[in-house]
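Issue: ligand-bound run for PBG - logging full I/O for the record.

Environment: standard queue, default settings, no custom constraints.

Inputs:
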Amino acid sequence: MLRQKWYTAGVIQELPIRPRRNRKSAAIRNMVRETALTAAHLVYPMFVQEGEEDSPIESLPGCTRWSVQGIVSECRRLYELGIRCVDLFAVVPEEKKDAAGSEAWNPEGVVPRAIRAIKAAVPGMMVMTDVALDPFNTYGQDGIVKEYEDGSYEILNDETVEALCRQALCHARAGADIISPSDMMDGRIGALRTALDAEGYTGVSLLSYTAKYASAFYGPFRGALGSAPKFGDKKTYQMDPGNAREALREAYLDESEGADMLMVKPATMYMDVIALLRQHTTLPIAAYHVSGEYLMLKAAAASGWLDEKQTTLETLLSIRRAGADIILTYAAPQVAEWLREEA
Ligand code: PBG
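Outputs:
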């Protein structure tokens, strides 16, 4: 057979197919690269707190609990760097937490105040907000907790969805562009869409945490917000890490309830889920490179074991290659700076 001869040792001149030709220079590699990572793909999760102080978060190096004033000036800098979307999380003092999580829909709460301030100062910056009750209730659970006399408890679904609608409306009234429910209650996308539309917020987008897994990689984030569950875990609502088909079921529901974008979280351990959803939906897909994933790279870099810039860029490019359009990452400002240096 003629074909066999081409691959026989010693007749290398006769090898006609050489994939290396497409890698022979930076120019050709740049021309044929299938996936790009730019600042436009990035969303920066930010923490906002009461008061005048901007305090660095020790457990999440590079991140800060911002005052409203501080977040506005940081957003100006981020906009300059090419970042066009921030995701806001509230840091809530213990004395403002209650069983219902009612601070979540206080129009003078720190999140609505930050939304108004950012939109006034940097109108081109899209403001996404996290919708869930865990930073606001005394339980550190994403939903409303019912405690029973025997010491057991339940996270109530439909009652929680009602509260999430109040929280989302509070954010929409303040000017949020994208509402991002991270709670994993059933039916919340349809309920949020209905509630927003009923008040005329038909233009406010819903980015659903579609496949959010019960992951140990959220630890540093919960430390940063003081939002770790006071008891139990989140396994009755967040997904089991062993499941991928179930993500398709959640995606189907979110899409039919009116989600504009779907999210997989965490990102790197769940690349198969990102790729699976990419094959089954036409909606944009977001991936959340969570606090624990970010810290693994930070820690290895701080020990001198890995090159922070190269490993971070490779990680985020790989998340894009798996099928994510959008990446939420604490490295966003640093990555935008690196990408600018390389351009
Ligand atoms: C809670 C929420 C969590 C994160 C985002 N929203 C933590 C959790 O579900 O316990 C995690 C983000 C991260 O780890 O970076 N609604």
